[in-house]
Amino acid sequence: MTMRWFYYAAPQTFYGLAARLWPWLAAIAFALTVAGLWIGFGLAPTDAQQGEGYRIIFVHVPASWMSMVIYLAMAFWSVLGLTFNTRLSGMMTRALAPTGAMFAFLSLWTGALWGKPMWGAWWVWDARLTSELILFFLYLGYMALTSAIEDVRRADRAGALIAIVGAINVPIIYFSVKWWNTLHQGASVSLTRSPSMAQLMLWGMLLMALAFWAYTLAIVCYRVRTLIIERERHTDWVQALPEVTGAQA
Fold first, then answer.
1. CB atoms within 10 A of CB 229
2. How far is it, in rounded angstroms, from Cα 220 to Cα 21?
3. 3-60: pLDDT as tens digits
4. pLDDT (tens digit per residue) in 97-132
5. Are the beta carbons of 80 and 65 closer than 8 angstroms?
6. pTM for this one?
7. How far apart are the C-alpha atoms of 101 and 199, rounded to whole Å?
8. Which of the listed residues 2, 91, 235, 247 has the most CB atoms within 10 Å of its CB?
9. The CA-based dihedral angle spanning residues 47, 52, 55, 57, taken in that order and rounded to the nearest 10 degrees
10. Measured between alpha carbons, how far is residue 144 from residues 25, 98, 123, 154, 199 in Å?
11. How far apart are CA 148 and CA 155, in angstroms?
């Protein structure tokens, strides 16, 4: 099993794996999104306190989760890249960053839509909101820095440092509602206690979370294949790919 993981650590072998996976993952993401939105916006009951406005959680909460998970994944690949000097690590980190930035932006935007009717303001300098905004800027900073450095190996190392150091912000986001007195409500789902929402609401939110997971994996697999072709374009195996030879014809 260990040798199998190392086998797919090479860009050439991972390219084929990603090509097989991303269409299936995209189809799963689409099906889960339809099911999640149907339950969240069609079947779930109206909240007794927040009315219909609470339904933004079916997008807001999964997007917030994914914005943190993706950044931790970037930090993980960055550690692997700096430790083992693997070429694939930098490509995976770059492939993850745009999707993570999108989810961070979606979290902030849907949070503003939720906050206006609940708090009476589009934005407050709440601990969780502020730390999520910092996460969004970390994504933008990573992409700006790696794009500004022409040498891809130097760019990967510089970006890896941002990803690793910035990962400290993720637990701050998660525990902010416990560490400080904030306007943001606490977690509705926890591993240590029963959920504080109706079962149908919970199912809708979890399906959307799985949909975002599948979407992330699909788009990263698709995007990393493009990065592999760009970086390995001078190798014989890339020159022999049908999509490359067809483009050159």
1. 17
2. 10
3. 466 677 789 999 999 999 999 999 999 999 999 999 999 998 887 677 777 889 999 9
4. 999 999 999 999 998 888 777 777 777 888 888 999
5. no
6. 0.90
7. 30
8. 91
9. -70
10. 29, 11, 26, 14, 42
11. 8
Cα-only R_g, the chain: 20
Q: Which residue has the tokens 């149908």?
A: 200
User: φ, ψ for residue 209 (rounded to 5)?
Assistant: -65, -45
Total Cβ atoms within 10 A of residue 242: 7
Separation between Cα atoms, residue 81 and residue 91, nearest integer Å: 10
